[in-house]
Design brief:
This protein has eight helices and no strands. The protein has one domain: Fic-like fold. Helix 2 packs parallel to helix 6, helix 4 packs antiparallel against helix 5 and helix 5 runs antiparallel to helix 6. By secondary structure, the protein is mainly α.
Length: 195
């Protein structure tokens, strides 16, 4: 991997030049430094989210969760993207798509359409597919799914039992599982979530 802090791997969402300017940390010169800063911020966001009961299907909470996970590093944290991406819905449809996804998940819970684990994993998949933020969507949606699983009385997911970092076998398995889910087959993603 390149030392360029903004060089994304093939499965990551590249930032626009304007979004890159929103980096709050002037000392970051290497990808490793950016990864470390984000990892610390994500842990702080996770501690905040787990510190009390939260409604993982609340749009305001979900925005605040992204802000808590990335707000020490990026000025755009918690704000929906305003540009096109290599995946996700058109940026002007994010709010509607997210509300629809939350309504779908509420329906699944109310009508017991799927088992609790599958509902939470499908929730994760919907969030990733919408891709509401400039970056951090995978980490944010996995934590949101974990919080929702807890809300449903389940344990947190293991998500492949390791760090999903660029070029790792775990990340490749995760991306394969997401692509299969995109095609309508949730089997790999469900297995990966509890691997």
């Amino acid at each position: 991997m390149s030392d360029d802090p903004f060089q994304a791997d093939d499965a990551a969402t590249p930032l626009t030049p304007e979004e890159r300017l929103d980096l709050k940390l002037s000392y970051v010169a290497l990808r490793r430094e950016l990864n470390e800063a984000e990892a610390l911020n994500v842990l702080a966001g996770e501690r905040w989210a787990l510190s009390r009961k939260r409604d993982a299907l609340n749009e305001v909470f979900l925005r605040r969760l992204h802000l808590r996970m990335f707000g020490d590093v990026w000025r755009w944290a918690g704000k929906y993207r305003t540009s096109a991406r290599n995946l996700g819905v058109d940026h002007w449809t994010i709010e509607v798509a997210l509300r629809q996804a939350l309504d779908d998940v509420r329906y699944w819970v109310e009508h017991r359409t799927y088992a609790p684990d599958e509902i939470a994993v499908r929730f994760h998949h919907k969030l990733v597919a919408i891709h509401p933020y400039p970056n951090g969507n995978g980490r944010w949606s996995r934590l949101a799914a974990d919080l929702f699983a807890l809300q449903l009385g389940q344990e947190r997911f293991t998500w492949g039992r390791g760090s999903i970092v660029a070029a790792s076998e775990i990340r490749l398995a995760y991306v394969r599982a997401l692509k299969a889910a995109d095609a309508g087959d949730m089997t790999l993603l469900l297995a990966f979530a509890r691997a």
